[in-house]
Amino acid sequence: MPTASTFLVFAGAALVLFVVPGPAVMFIVARSVEQGRAAGLTSAAGVALGSQVHSLFAALGLSVVLARSAALFTAVKLAGAVYLIVMGLRKLLVRRRGIDPVTAAERQRQPLKRIFVNGFVVNVLNPKTALFFLAFLPQFVDVRRGPAAPQILVLGLTFGLIGVCSDSMYALTASFAGERLRGRMGRSGGLDRASGVIYVVLGLVAALARRPASAVTPRG
What are the residues whose beta carbons fall under 8 Å from the beta carbon of 219, sequence distance 6 or more? Predict the structure, then answer.
């Protein structure tokens, strides 16, 4: 197990990283503005669970395979990009002829289970998150204190807990702002278009991401 001092240093470094929001945070914010507090918090929980999958990958060494295989990196990257873009296009292309936009928006509200799955899938299909865990977590592993894999899992869980707290704050703040936006933009359909654009942009950013050489990259 990592020492108490290692935990403190690790937690401090993680907090610094969470100060700068990445694509995962933008996804959570979009969900919060679009559908409210419960949706935002559920998205944050899904993203956090996705992070734990990457932590497990790092502990098992699967992230090394992803880092070394350009083809695998590209395949995972494009799968995540397509997932986001399709979500965005569904928002942008939905037709509501003869239906009040607010009523249509209520019909379009996704159940929390699906929102959770969306957050989970978006984060799991982000190969840069896997590479981030591969580069970041091992820096705090001390092989003199036991096998590396259990330490990586503990650090990954710690990182996930800090992340879900940070992401929840973003979700709560965005949902508060979203209450006013939903009132102003709901009837014109502007909120759906805005969230659709955000998802498409996030998908394009993911598609254009390059495989980093070795440096630690921002989360998301």
Answer: 17, 18, 22, 24, 129, 132, 163
| Angstrom distances, CA of residue 61 to CA of 41, 46, 149, 210, 220 | 30, 23, 9, 21, 20
Measured CA to CA, the distance from residue 8 to residue 16 in angstroms comes to 12
Q: What is the pTM for the complete model shown?
A: 0.79
Specify the long-range contacts of residues 204-209, CB closer than 8 Å, at least 24 apart.
204/81, 204/85, 205/23, 206/23, 206/77, 206/80, 206/81, 206/84, 206/126, 207/77, 207/78, 207/81, 207/85, 209/77, 209/127, 209/128
Q: CA 47 to CA 152: how far, in whole Å?
A: 18
pLDDT tens string 181-218: 665 555 556 667 777 888 888 888 888 877 655 444 44
Q: Are residues 47 and 167 in contact, defined by beta-carbon separation less than 8 angstroms?
A: yes
Q: Output b/e per residue, 62-75; b: 16+ Cβ within 10 A.
A: bbeebbeeeeebee
Total Cβ atoms within 10 A of residue 175: 23
* Mean pLDDT calculated for residue range 124-152: 85
At position 101, the amino acid (one-letter code) is: P
Structure tokens at 20: 């700068």
What's the count of helices (H) and strands (E) in the chain, helices before strands?
10, 0
CB 58 within 8 A of CB 149: no
